[in-house]
Amino acid sequence: MKPFPELDPMQVPTTLFESWQTPPQADELRLIPIGGLGEFGMNAMVVHTAKSLFLVDCGQLFPSDDEPGIDSIVPDFAYLEPFADRIDAVLLTHGHEDHLGALPYFLERWPVPVYGTAFTLGLLESKMREFELDRKLLRKVSDFARIKIGCGEIEAEWIPVTHSIPDACAIALHTPQGVIVHSGDFKLDPTPTDGRLTGVKRLKALGDTGVSALLADSTNVMKPGHTPSEESCREGLRQAFRQTKGKLFIAMFSSNIHRIQTLLDLAYEEDRKVVILGRSLDRNVGVARELKHLMLPDDLFIQPNEASLFKPNKILVLCTGSQGEEMSAMARLLRREVKGLKFAPGDRLVLSSRSIPGNEVSISRMLDAAARQGVETANEELGPIHASGHGQRDEAAEFIRLLRPRTMVPIHGNFRNLQAHGRIAESLGWPKERVLLIEGGECLQFFGKAEPRLAGSVPVGKCFVDQGVSHRVDARVVHDRLILQEDGIVIATVLVDPITGELAGDPTILTRGFVVLSDDESYGELLRGAVRKAFEDAPPEIRKNRDLLIELLRQTLRRIIRKTTETRPMVVPMILEASAG
Ligand SMILES: [Zn+2]
Ligand SMILES: [Zn+2]
Question: How many A from CA of 428 to the centre of ligand 2?
Answer without folding.
Answer: 26
